Prior knowledge:
The protein has 287 residues and is α+β, with helices and mostly antiparallel strands. Helices cover 42% and strands 22% of the residues. It has helices at 3-7, 18-32, 37-86, 117-127, 153-159, 166-169, 198-208, 212-215, 271-283; strands at residues 105-111, 137-144, 149-150, 172-183, 186-195, 234-238, 241-247, 253-260, 264-268. A hairpin with a 3-residue loop joins strand 8 and strand 9. The radius of gyration is 48 Å and the shape is elongated. The protein starts with a helix and ends with a helix.
Amino acid sequence: MSPENQNVPEKTEPKKSGIRTMVSDVQEYASGKKFSLGELVANKGRRTEDEDESVIEKIKPWAYVISAVLILILAGFGAFWIKQAFEPSDKAVITAPAPLVTAGKEYLLELKSSGDKEALFKEWQKLADSQLLPREFLYIKTLDQEQNKYLDWLEMLAVLESFPPPLLSDSFGQRSTVGFMDTSRGNEAIFIIEVKSYSQAFAGLLRWEEKMADDLKDLLIPGLSYDRGEEVFTDLVVANNDARFLRNRLGEFILGYSIFNRRFLIIAQSPQAIEAAIRQMSALPPR
């Protein structure tokens, strides 16, 4: 190599930037296809829009279906909530009234309806054989499932198609208690009813004496003779309270009543049962 050649610097072309080269390549491609770079960009934009519209058109039917399903679900939940919020519940929880006498045991007697006479009679007769402690009281709560309410004494008698004279029933207050009291003769039916008027209640009882045993026969304990013959109710004193009792032909007590403190009518089958109720109510008077 000659010295002249060594002194002449080698010529190098400037390196094109990547961006410049890409733009140039595109321009060269566009010129070869007989359209401008602007037309190429515009065409690309139209293709993108067309593709987007195609995707949207495919999604639209499914979007409608999903929206309809969601609307139906929300409408169903809304209807259910409105029904629960504004309609009374058929199974509202209710509380049985407290007994007027201290109860050692309680029993829930459930009836399908207020016309279920056979069920009431069968359950009552079974309870007559319950095991009770001496002078213990078994409180029977009678529930009408159809009406979802506890029956009072008059409503319970109505199930058995028994109706005291209006003079007597009109004297009753709101509270009543029914059940069995342990006595020396076993469990005896006992009924305790609040009265609003002592004189009216007593007059009504005198009027009812002729039919009382017949009206209550389905609730009285079996095993006793209820043939009264010519017997009538007679006066008696039980635990310092006036009472009246009926005996059968054999001289056995079968039914009687007393009005304790002129406020609470007690109907039972023996003086012993009435005495047990009076002593308990004296120790813990009903409120």
